[in-house]
Amino acid sequence: MRVSVVANESPEPRPHAVGCNAPQEAAIVQTCDTFVMKALKTWPAQDRQHITGVFTDIDDTLTTDGAITPDALQALSDLKAAGLHVIPITGRPVGWSEPFALSWPVDAIVAENGAVALLADKSGRKPLSKRYQQDPATRIANHARMQQTAQRITREVAGAVLAQDSAGRETDIAIDHSEFVHLPPERIAQAVQIMRSEGMNATVSSIHINGWFGAHNKLEGARWIARELWGRNLDAEMARWVYVGDSTNDQLMFEAFPNSVGVANIRRFEAQLSHKPRYITEGERGAGFAELVAALLDARKA
């Protein structure tokens, strides 16, 4: 099963930013280097010791060649065994995410760029539960509008087709540009322009163009799930969390989290990043995620 990352998006509006790139006191700004990704080994142990939870992208961050590797899966288990919260946040559809929410050792999976959360009863006695940011009436109305936009794109953009995982999508649409078909940059831009002309948010991943109606995104999804699960204000404790990702779609998170990490394959998007992760791993994809987890857990032993 193929898994995606996000590349080449325009900045999204956001109500608040709290990380290294946000407006801060001069003394703090002087310590923030937003243009250089530092080696993970330079991440101070005292900062790692205070981490209580991990938000992570899935595609090409947890996964390698479309599947989670044993080292990354073990890293998830190690985080949970150490008592840390773990929440993957992805642009992939809710239907695609369901088996992973059931089988991975995580608190929840937030799918469709922050729109819906999947929570599994790890005892196996209850079915997988879903929580949405939008009410049912809004989702129904938005779904109809999104299908009209999707039809317009496939009609007007030469070669554009819906992503093959579209059947599992509830709150967004996805156009394939690199998973099973290839769209050149100008046609990707045309599809994005159509989405935005229809009032949609639009992002471009390494394989899909995603569009949706609503104010949610990965960062808002993280804030929302922290409130939903634990009644916690994420902004008030942002320094106690880490975010790890691999692409331009993760920029809101890189900007907001002072402890942000990119797996090494983010280098391919480095020129496109307005907001880079603070640190970068030596390993790519799942190996990079496992490297991050080892750094976190080693600091807790000190």
Please give the CATH architecture of the largest domain. 3-Layer(aba) Sandwich
Q: So how many helices?
A: 9
Q: The CATH topology of the largest domain, please?
A: Rossmann fold
- Low confidence ranges: 1-19, 21-31
CATH class descriptor name of the largest domain: Alpha Beta
Shape: globular
Q: What is the number of E strands?
A: 15
Distance between the termini: 39 Å
Radius of gyration: 18 Å
CATH homologous superfamily designation of the largest domain:
HAD superfamily/HAD-like
Strand residues, percent: 15-25%
**What characterizes the major β-sheet?**
6 strands, parallel
Structural features, described:
With 302 residues, this protein is α/β, with parallel strands linked by helices. It folds into 2 domains: 35-133 and 216-301, 3-Layer(aba) Sandwich (Rossmann fold); 136-212, Alpha-Beta Complex (Hypothetical Protein Ta0175, Chain: A, domain 2), CATH 3.90.1070. Helices cover 33% and strands 17% of the residues. The chain contains 9 helices and 15 strands. It has helices at 26-29, 45-49, 70-81, 94-103, 136-156, 185-197, 218-230, 251-256, 285-301; strands at 38-39, 53-56, 63-64, 67-68, 85-88, 109-111, 116-119, 129-132, 161-162, 173-176, 201-204, 208-212, 241-245, 260-262, 279-280. The protein has a 6-stranded parallel β-sheet with strand order 1-15-14-13-2-5. Strand 3 and strand 4 form a beta hairpin. Helix 5 (136-156) packs across helix 6. The model is unreliable at 1-19 and 21-31 (pLDDT under 50).
